[in-house]
Amino acid sequence: DIQMTQSPSTLSASVGDRVTITCRASQTITGWLAWYQQKPGKAPKVLIYEGSFLEAGVPSRFSGSGSGTEFTLTISSLQPDDFATYYCQHYNAYLWTFGQGTKVEIK
Amino acid sequence: EVQLVESGGGLVKPGGSLRLSCAASGFSFGSYSFNWVRQAPGKGLEWVSSISGSSYYIYYADSVRGRFTISRDNAQNALFLQMNNLRAEDTAVYYCARDDRRYWGPGTLVTVSS
Which residues 84-103 of A are in CB contact (within 8 Å) with B? Predict the structure, then answer.
């Protein structure tokens, strides 16, 4: 089974900061990777799919990159609405695997 | 408007059963595969099960295989999760999600406790 490992688990940042979250797969996943944002009490919201494609309606300050086993989510200038928990997800046919999450907190 | 709404959660004793439902509207239900994903209190997301549009392909996480059964009724635009022999570690918010990842329900809370 493929394992997804995110780092860091928690990140403290200020409004305007550039933030990067890393997700590593235990084996090559050929770009079938998504990033989600989740706020307390709410369902996850997809931000990025296929590693680097921005979901419709998602602000352009969010970007995804990477391939093979290492992927990153970057927020170019952190906004107050961005303080949340972020998850990476590998999807392959009918199997989903999530990273453990990265909580972005206010510094 | 695409909507997914879960129901059927609640408090159940260890060893008990629950059946979750996910009512879908606003799209061609039978054209999509679906997933159940759960989130224990204060924890991360865990994929539980998936089912193809025709119900031909069905998959489970190791943690629920043999205890949970996913099914769907395309005529009723509904997805189900039958949960048997529930354990304390099954306590979580259960979400249904369309396979394109764009649409999730708000979730339903399942609490397994004596």
Answer: 87, 89, 91, 93-101
pLDDT, position A30:
77
pLDDT tens digits, A11-42: 999 999 999 999 999 999 877 899 999 999 99
Which amino acid does the sequence have at A81?
Answer: D
Contacts with B101 from chain A: Cβ below 8 Å:
34, 36, 46, 49, 89, 91
The residue of chain B with its CA nearest to that of A92 is B99
Strand B92-98 versus strand B108-112 pairing type: antiparallel
Contact residues for A74 (Cβ-Cβ < 8 A; gap 6+): A18, A19, A20, A21, A62, A63, A64, A65
Q: How far is A100 from chain B (nearest CA, A)?
A: 6
Alpha-carbon span B92 to B37, nearest angstrom = 10
Residue ranges of alpha helices (H) inside chain B are none
Tell me: the pLDDT tens digits for B20-41?
Answer: 999 999 999 999 999 999 999 9
Q: What region, left, alpha or beta, does residue B66 occupy, with left being phi > 0 and alpha being psi -120 to 50 degrees? A: left
- What's the pLDDT at A98? 98
